[in-house]
Design brief:
Oligomer: single chain
Strand content: under 5%
Helix content: 55-70%
CATH topology of the largest domain: Fumarase C, Chain A, domain 2
Strand order of the largest sheet: 1-2
Distance between the termini: 70 Å
Largest sheet: 2 strands, antiparallel
Structural class: mainly alpha
CATH class of the largest domain: Mainly Alpha
Number of domains: 3
Number of strands: 6
């Protein structure tokens, strides 16, 4: 015999309860509630409700005195939540119904009028847009902070040479500053993507109601003005079902985390004994519970690991959305935890890396020493022959044979004598060939736009600093 499901004790009647004669199963209450996580939207829910109430009063849809009572009641509720004196109730399902129930307790009949000309469908879309608009702006600031740390680090080490890599094999000498500024360029693109996403986030959905709009004379443009939205959504059905703005942020966040993971991977590699390029500060490393000698790059490893978490959130949201018919479906409740977790993860990684990078100790002697190993100036020798008139493909072969010869003899390129160069490889070699074989000469010669020459790196560093100063002035001017 099947057991009857238990029903929750109805402490209050559900706002949607008119259609129902029975209570809701306790299992359903627990399964479907979202207040445990969407309560963090309270500030935005109240902000949107204040604007909505103001519009309802302005349009004469509700009496202005009721609109004023509603606004005052919402402000009192905001104070209670901020001070920790508000009790969120699971049986009220979500942040919207928790605040509405509290408002009715505060204001009586007036509070019952707030939900006129809106639905939780357009209300939650509004809350998410307000929340994400705020968080994207904060994330852009954190990206800027990490970029500033990279630029400052590059400035402090602007004369240090290190090996550049392809395929994780030593390739050509580069300035350490040039390597660090590569990540600054990534941060620029990340900030640009996030900034561009604000255009699509900053669109007002409120007024779409459940899916079809309303017969009441609302003024959506007025609400948009009150809330600082640049545009109003054009289709009520799309308004309540659209989560493209969430997906776009999650995608931007995944790309950003990929960049942070690449940077973290290099910190991990460089801190190994095999590389020995950096020493990690005690404050940003941990030890082993069994091996006393260990100093582990846990911060970088965690940043690298959390990247997979953000990727997973993006794929989770894409999967939620992939087969949803129009318009609102309860599946969309799943967007919040994915979004909140991504925001929290990205911000925490940006913050900790920005604190860690400035205190990393670069072992400059080791960097300089390894910059010249592995025949890293072979390309410079090939370009030397090109300047003497030899086609590059032929020069590539000549230098390749010289590298093979040096490798077999246990020599460096600069250890081969001029007679050997002339007799074994090409008569175009002259004594000036040895001037191009040092790592510092190699770096100095890379003056092509965007190259690693000190003059080019200094130019790009100055551009980054100029941009930073401009942003400071623009911020002060606002």
């Amino acid at each position: 015999m099947a057991m009857k499901s238990k029903t929750a004790k109805q402490k209050i009647k559900k706002p949607w309860g008119g259609r129902f004669s029975g209570g809701t199963s306790q299992a359903v209450e627990a399964f479907s509630e979202s207040i445990s996580f969407d309560k963090r939207l309270w500030k935005y829910d109240i902000e949107g409700s204040i604007a909505h109430a103001g519009m309802l009063g302005k349009q004469g849809i509700i009496p202005k005195k009721d609109a004023k009572l509603i606004v005052k009641g919402l402000m009192r509720i905001a104070t209670r939540i901020a001070e920790g004196g508000f009790v969120f109730r699971e049986e009220l399902e979500d942040i919207h119904m928790n605040i509405e129930a509290a408002l009715i307790e505060e204001t009586g009949e007036a509070g019952k009028k707030l939900h006129t000309a809106r639905s939780r469908n357009d209300q939650v879309a509004l809350d998410l847009r307000l929340y994400l608009r705020s968080e994207v702006k904060e994330t852009i600031g954190l990206v800027g902070g990490l970029k500033a740390a990279l630029v400052d680090l590059a400035q402090r080490h602007r004369e240090i040479i290190m090996p550049g890599y392809t395929h994780l094999q030593r390739a050509q000498p580069v300035l350490l500053a040039h390597h660090l500024l590569a990540y600054a360029e990534m941060m620029d693109r990340d900030a640009e993507r996030l900034l561009e996403s604000l255009k699509r986030i900053n669109v007002l959905p409120l007024g779409a109601c459940a899916l079809a709009g309303t017969s009441l004379p609302i003024d959506r443009l007025y609400v948009a003005e009150l809330l600082g939205f640049d545009a109003v959504s054009a289709n009520s059905m799309d308004s309540v079902s659209d989560r493209d703005f969430v997906l776009e942020f999650l995608s931007d966040a995944a790309i950003l985390m990929m960049h942070l993971s690449r940077l973290s991977e290099e910190v991990v590699l460089w801190s190994t004994e095999e590389f020995s390029f950096i020493g990690l500060p005690d404050a940003f490393a941990t030890g082993s519970s069994i091996m006393p000698q260990k100093k582990n790059p846990d911060v970088a490893e965690l940043a690298r690991g959390k990247t997979g978490r953000v990727y997973g959130n993006l794929m989770g949201m894409l999967t939620v959305m992939k087969a949803l018919p129009l318009t609102y479906n309860r599946d969309l409740q799943e967007d919040k935890e994915l979004l909140f977790d991504t925001v929290d993860t990205v911000k925490s990684v940006l913050d900790v890396l920005a604190q860690m990078l400035p205190v990393i100790n670069f072992r400059t002697e080791r960097l300089e020493e390894t910059a010249g190993e592995g025949f890293s100036t072979a390309t410079d020798m090939a370009e030397y022959l090109v300047k003497k008139g030899m086609p590059f493909r032929e020069a590539h072969g000549v230098v390749g044979r010289a590298v093979l010869y040096a490798s077999q003899k246990g020599k460096r390129l600069e250890d081969i004598s001029l007679d050997e160069y002339k007799g074994l490889f090409s008569g175009l070699f002259d004594k000036d060939v040895f001037q191009v074989l040092s790592p510092r000469a190699s770096v100095a010669a890379k003056k092509s736009l965007g190259g690693t020459a000190p003059s080019e790196v200094a130019r790009r560093m100055a551009a980054h600093k100029k941009e930073k100063e401009k942003k400071k002035k623009d911020k002060k001017g606002k």
